[in-house]
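Allow me, if you will, to draw on your knowledge of protein folds for a short while. I have a record of one protein: its chain in single-letter code and its fold written as discrete structure tokens. I remain grateful for any guidance, and I place the record below:
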Amino acid sequence: MAWTYNSTAIGSSGLSWVRWRVGDTDTDDQLLDDDEIQAAIDNEGNKELGAAVTAEVLGAHFARKVDKSVGKLRLAMAQTSGHYFTLADRLRTEVNMRATAYAGGISESDRDSEEADTDRVDPAFFAGQFDHPGAPTAASTNVF
């Protein structure tokens, strides 16, 4: 089980960044190995969502453990599990807050660029799709 963390590489290493975000930075208390975290990053396509999945995995891990108490000593694994699931939600929210909306077709050049894209899926609706040659129009029947 390989476990690495380099605090000086947080800006350049997705693995170190995820460990930093989920708190898996203690060499003496290793939670996940490098391959598990890297799989989450690869599966999600970026370190931010990889961190959210990693937090969910840790939440599930601690959810399997039961709360224990011996005398006044109490270990509450349910609280630890809840912490990681809350962290996963917060990490996903951070990703969603950085998302930007895009409304295409606002400018003529944008519309022309979209229409010229040969890989673009044809629209389901388009202007004039219900026009029939020879059929009367609103203008010719004086309806309006």
The chain has a mean pLDDT of 87.
